[in-house]
Batch of 4 targets.
Target 1
Amino acid sequence: MFTISFADPQDAARLADVQKRTFDADARLYQNKEEDGPPGYGSTDWQAEQMGKAHYYKLIAGNSIIGGMIVFPFPEAGECHLARIFIDPLYQNHGYGQESFRFLFETYPAARKWTLDTPSWAIRNHYFYEKLGFVRTGAVTALGNCEAIIGYERVK
């Protein structure tokens, strides 16, 4: 059984562990690096801090946390920004990503626009987001490492 609910501070260590495994697996697959991820991706403190700033959801299959999503809603603008979504590599390609987006679109029906971004090298993410109706809005080069970040949006 797959469920989605708000994360609690006691989930922070497990979410950090899953997030680190997820992003490090992508780094090995696409960048030939042992580890690499966005700021705070392996930090328990960072996870707990985000729970106070955004809507942080945990993805649960059976009794295990298998991933998470961090959403910044802007209801006055009719928009939501998906700051992060991650699913443990052992649970990818089982439909949990599509279920997660279905949950988001149903939970925030007033959001006329969704935005997110992903690294240019994360080809699988690009395909997945475009399959869900997101379109590329441009690229920004991250300071320090010259990595291009691709922006996406989905408008109702």
Note: The radius of gyration is 15 Å.
Target 2
Amino acid sequence: MKQVTDKLFIAPQLSAADIRAAKARGIAAIVNNRPDGEEAGQPTAEENRRVAEAEGLSHAHIPIAAGQITEDKVRAFQAAVAEARGPVLAHCKTGTRSATLHAIGEVLDGRMARDEVVPLGQRLGLDLAGAVKWLDANGR
């Protein structure tokens, strides 16, 4: 689990045990950015939703296939984080898509400069060049 902001953490694919550990660390909501069936053996969004809700955590599934980010998905991600009643743990296969959604939203809303995206990724140990490419391709 890597801290992005005071409210947002990211992680790779979560198991049921990871969700329970996140709850113990004070996480209030899970945002799953991974499409079902992306990899053999990966828990489904429904399986993780049931575990999260059993632990008293809210759960949102905003699946992002590689290279398929839209502004609507960015806004849905932002809403899920904003509406959570405490810290949020967003995940995908590696955490990169979740961090990319966050970074794009921050740039779109003027809270982050485009040239701060790559350094954010470096701080998190992730390559956020895809966020910069998305911003370029969408005239941002």
Note: The longest helix spans residues 71-83.
Target 3
Amino acid sequence: MPLPLTREQVGKASTWLLLNFGPEIRKAVEGKPYDVAIACAIACKETGPMWVSRIDKHKPAEILALQVGDASGDFPNTSRKAFPRNTAAFRSRYGDEFTEMLIGEANKARTVRGFSPAKWVYKGYGLFQYDLQNVEKDEEFFRKKLWYNMDSCLERFTLILDSKFKAAGNDEREGVRRYNGAGASAEEYADHVMTFVGWCRGTM
């Protein structure tokens, strides 16, 4: 699969991230086995295609609010193993009010991207795509829409990446790969992110 962003787009995205959220990102990675470039590169890979073309049209806070993605389990011909496997599974456990709120957030993002409304609960939230499976232990993040807040996104992102890097013996590529999972798609994910890391470091 080709890279989802060009070198020029990654440079533009990382510059925007540091201009608007540089202090927060630097504080979040301080003392970690990974750096600002890795954080920016993962944001580019996870959600960059959804926002890099919009940073001249929307305020930073608006960009954060619209980072709702991943309709797996509901989008035709897709499946998902983690809870919730689909919108029906989420609704069954958490009820209509919570479900409809998340559908509404997904549709705000869909509208900006030029898509018509759907009745799907999306599974990824925030610049780093904090997965909805975490609702079972971190319900507050989703109920209170904390992906609107960069510090809240970074707190969850670094907590997960810390564990992945620890398991990887602080190897950069392996830590990045584990952030995405296992298998061929995770290997490709790591290849893309590490390419972006090199480009990001070239602009910092």
Note: Helices lie at 7-29, 36-51, 60-65, 87-112, 139-143, 150-167, 172-180, 184-201.
Target 4
Amino acid sequence: MDKLPITKAGELKISKQLHQLKTKDRVEISQAIADARAHGDLKENAEYHAAKEEQGFIEAKIQEIEHALANAQVIDVKDIPETGRVVFGSTIDLYDIKNEKSLTYKIVGNLESDPSLGLISIQTPIAMGLLGKNEGDEVTISTPSGDISLEIEKVKHL
């Protein structure tokens, strides 16, 4: 299996999330299960069943993060010379030609993506359409909501 790219900042954020899940959330849910168990009959104890379900979610999330970190290739974009070319980890200032507005995206790994913060996954159509392009290029990218035309104004390694 190929290693999945992740930014240095993303690795740190996800490692903190894993630590929180293991040291705080896991302990709290174990206590909630113990408290619910103390209330007696488990067959009709909604608190117990809800806590067990939550425990399953937490354990699945821990496994997902551990697997992702084990299969991650950490890339620090600051170590890559700035050439104006879009690479993984780049922060790109764009101009949406049709809507006449400026946008800024940073291309990141799947687990760290958060479009509301301008962090887009390397596997999105927009990121794939921008990779390898240069400052000044105009690109038209097919997305699920239709084609978009973007001009790459600035590529930064932050």
Note: Residues 4-74 form a domain with the Helix Hairpins fold (CATH 1.10.287.180).
